[in-house]
Amino acid sequence: MPKPIVAIVSNIYGDATDQDRPVDFTISLRRDSLVRRFLKPQITFYSDIHAPFKPLPLSQAYALLEWGMNWCIAAHDFSRLIVHAAVLVKNNQAIIFPASPGSGKSTLTAYLSLNGWTLYSDEMAIIDLENQKVSPLYRPVCLKNDSISIIKTLHPEAQMTPVCKDTQKGDVSHLKGIDWLSYTKLEPADIVGIVFPKYKKETDLAIYTCNQLQAFEAMSTHAFNYTVLGQDAFGVVGKLTQKASLFEVEYNSLPELAEFLAEDVIR
Prior knowledge:
Elements: H1 3-13, E1 27-30, E2 42-47, E3 56-57, H2 61-76, E4 81-90, E5 93-98, H3 105-113, E6 118-121, E7 124-127, E8 134-135, E9 141-144, H4 146-154, E10 164-167, E11 170-175, H5 180-184, E12 190-199, E13 206-209, H6 212-222, H7 226-229, H8 231-243, E14 245-251, H9 254-265
Parallel strand pairs: 5-12, 12-14
Antiparallel strand pairs: 1-2, 2-3, 4-5, 4-6, 4-7, 7-8, 9-11, 10-11, 13-14
């Protein structure tokens, strides 16, 4: 792994000192081309001997590492339902936020994690098939474009990586939303709310109640392994949409939305 990336990895994951946990994947970043070492250097992500992505510019190496780790989980974990969603917890109760790109999900995730909520995940809700509880994932929040300056302005003390410029997702920076010691104390949490967020500039907070069918369809669409799990996934999504509060929200003010979530979704 290139030395500049080692420093960034150490900044985000350096406090993870538990060496006894099992290793699920062997991953690496490599500069394969000797010519490319000097002329427009590139980096490739490997999981064992497999390279699932095209090489990217060396300047985007850390972003590639994070995306590669996401791929490892989404492409190989079929023992649990994996939903493309953020997960935030308060009072041992979880809200999951399934959302499409451009919804402001990660900005909301970063804001909540810096304002009294516990970050379980920015990217994936990992849900047990038996008890429907969601597990924590020790990963940073991926901020993009304007979200980077928004969070830096609101929380200049936030621990963030240098910005990766001009990636396929625009400018990207990763925020450390929880420390390792706090993470090791977390337990799977009950999901009490499923909220579909949509950021809209210059709009008042608008809250809509979703019916179970709408939420079921959206959850199924956002699940990475729904078709693989089949009947098991159908059962999990059905139970979650029956017992959780279901909302679609349009927002501009992060504090206003946070207040609604704490008072009307958390029980």
